[in-house]
Amino acid sequence: MERNSITAAPAVAAPMSLYDEWHRDNHGTRRDFLRFLTTPGVGRDRFLSARETEMLAVGSIVTPLCKV
């Protein structure tokens, strides 16, 4: 990984497998869940940080990959 790397938005390997977990505390639809995952925010960061994360580096781009 290069010293001046750019961190990309987090990626989720199988996003719909997390829907049931999210739906326990949220009353939204699957569409709402996908909007939640693609909109930056504290809630999304908190939700994804509870998962195992692997960092993928391609050139100077680093992408956090959240595993299910």
Q: End-to-end distance, in Å?
A: 24 Å
- Main beta sheet strand tally, sense and closure: 4 strands, mixed
Output the number of helix runs: 3
The stretches of 5 or more residues where confidence is low (pLDDT under 50) are none
Number of domains: 1
The percentage helix is 25-40%
| Beta-strand content | 15-25%
DSSP, total strands: 4
Rg over CA atoms, rounded to whole Å, is 13 Å
- Any idea what the shape is? elongated
Topology as a string of helices (H) and strands (E): EEHHHEE
Average of the residue pLDDT scores: 89
Quick recap:
The protein is of the alpha/beta class and 68 residues long. It has helices spanning 19-25, 30-38, 42-49; strands at residues 6-7, 11-12, 53-58, 61-66. Strands 1, 2, 3 and 4 form a four-stranded mixed beta sheet that branches.
